[in-house]
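for the writeup, i need someone to sanity check this before i put it in the appendix. the sequnce is what the collaborator sent (i think, or maybe the updated version? ugh). structure was predicted straight from it, no edits. if anything looks off just tell me and ill rerun, i have time this weekend
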Amino acid sequence: MARADGVGTATDATVEALARAVAGAVEAVGGYAGGVYLRSRSDELLLLALFSGLPLPLFRPWWRMQVNRPYPVAEAYRSGQAVHLTDAESAMSRFPQFVAGLPFPFASLYEPVSSGSERYGVLVVLRPATPGVPVGAGDRKRLRQAADELARELSALSAAGEAVGWEGDPVCMPSPAPE
């Protein structure tokens, strides 16, 4: 049931929208894992709502993200601007505290999910590191399109009285089977 602030117990429709968005974004930009952070009841906290592609326990330290912290998810949410980290070096230069606890090198893309002034969360994709190679315009566009489509779905769910925030632990979605 949604509260006046649009946050409440997530419904199957919300989880399905998140799952479609993550699967589509991961595939669109050649990733191997991804997830969605959504706002919580607290204006200061984002929660990992859904994750796919890697064992969820690896990311337990990042299930809850304070929006005022110096992490890429929080920056994308606060600023409304995408954050693209192509490798460990670029991540370390911008977010040293984030990289210190990571067990393997990767590139990570963070795209805010919003509709007008309504901020829902952040779509995240992990993919192989590309040292020194910026994220291409095509990948940036495809990830933005995936976030925009998710924002449209979440807006429609919100208009229908559904919850668009998150409370509780993340849902772990299996990776799609290779074709």
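The helical segments are 12-28, 72-79, 88-94, 96-99, 137-159. The two ends are 38 Å apart (CA to CA).
thx in advance!!
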